[in-house]
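Could you join me in thinking about how sequence relates to backbone shape in a protein? Would you write everything just below, so we can both look at the same thing?
***
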Amino acid sequence: QARKIQVLLPHVMEVLHDGNRAIKMKALVVFRNVMRHLKRKEASPIAVQLVEELLPLLDDESSQMRELSISLFRDVVATVVGKDKRRMKKKVRRGLLPLFFNMHDETDSVAK
């Protein structure tokens, strides 16, 4: 089923630009679940695209959103294989500063 849903992921990714936090969080859960069921080779190019969409969410005012986006960020970075690693490395560098600041977050689960 994850492979069937894979076709919808570009549309789900567009939801991350929506202003509604609840919908964004549901979209992140969809990505987390689908990415876990794809083979790494299938998930790798999606991960490279997704990590860029996650960067603004790392600084969201909602601790739940930060926690969910950081968790997914970690998972998608670990998913990348082959030639996608170089592309991912450039994008991850842009997320290091927000991640560093989140280490000192008031919410323990975000700081972890």
Remarks:
- The mean pLDDT is 83.
- The two ends are 32 Å apart (CA to CA).
- The domain at 2-111 is CATH 1.25.10.10 (Leucine-rich Repeat Variant).
- Residues 84-102 form the longest helix (19 residues).
